[in-house]
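Ticket #4471: structure export looks truncated?
Reporter: QA, pipeline team
Priority: medium

Steps to reproduce: submit the single chain below to the structure queue and open the exported record.
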Amino acid sequence: MPRSFFRPVLALFLATLMLAPALQATAAQVRIKDIADVQGVRGNDLVGYGLVIGLNGTGDTIRNSPYTEEALTNLLERLGVNVQDSDFRPDNIAAVLVTSTLPPFAREGSRIDINVASIGDASSLAGGTLVMTPLNAPNGQIFAIAQGNILISGFDAEGAGASITQGVPTAGTIPNGARVEREIPYDFRSQQSVRLALRDPDFTTAGRVEQSINTAIGRPVATLLDPGTVEVDLRALGGSPAHAMGRIENLTLRSAEIARVVIDQRSGTIVLGEAVKVSSVAVAQGNLTIKIAETPVASQPNPFGFGETVVLPRTQIAVDDGRIGQMAIVNEAVELPDLVAGLNALGVSPREMIDILKAIKSAGALHAELVLQ
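Actual output as written to the record:
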């Protein structure tokens, strides 16, 4: 292969190597609140069963969803309407499950978002209104009441000979659709110490959290317990625990990234972390196409002769290896910018790059976790 091919690739490698120290020096600083949670301060899941009314003929079929009729009967009887022994078949009502998350420190009267999803054979919830639905915690207690107009992002249209569905018309949301009726008791003022739980446990990051807090306070108040936990002594900070946490959670540090390559094979998306490194490896990329065509021929006997019609097979095979694959050599300990620049210099597509990364990982030259989705 001519050396002229490697010159532009080598130039890209040298340019990105010169930029690598600058990229590391300008690495983003993250806040502690963005990488860690306060242990014990969390949300609580809520769920409820309700009815959506006002649908334009897209509701549940009562015959196929008897629970919808039962729920509607109970609702009307609570409102003072007697529907016993009456034969009604509405098609504008749908049974749904309502889910939400009660955020920490939510107070009575505050509003939260909810999600609504059909559980029957309704074709769409567009234009529907959720009737008053209690939301229960796993212990069975009611913590919120949901009600409101549903917003959906999909639609369903059909005609005599065709139909089209885009998105999910049987699920939607109601922003601020539930009102909190009960608070979860949690006395944060009595806390003498708190534990910061890292969302991605890592010894290096946890150590930097400890160092950042102790440096800002001026004395050792934070202790590293394990790669996912840092304990902070609030008694040594003075003042209220809430003020202390407000000061601590806004401290910044540089998080240690895990070398990871995430590949979505369906969309051809590739995401590489900055810490990804590649050892010396040679990469060649090319295409191979094999085409097989069957053109059978019928052989018939002569006129007024004896014999039978026979079908003779005719097979044509063509092999095309496309353009000759080019090969590039990736140098020792190459970082992310060098790897991307080298693969782009080969002119490979994202899907071809996925196969190359898999092969480099199988060869033991890709020093990163390969995540396939």
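Status: closed, not a bug. The export was complete when the record was re-opened. Leaving a note from the reviewer for reference: The chain has seven helices and 25 strands.
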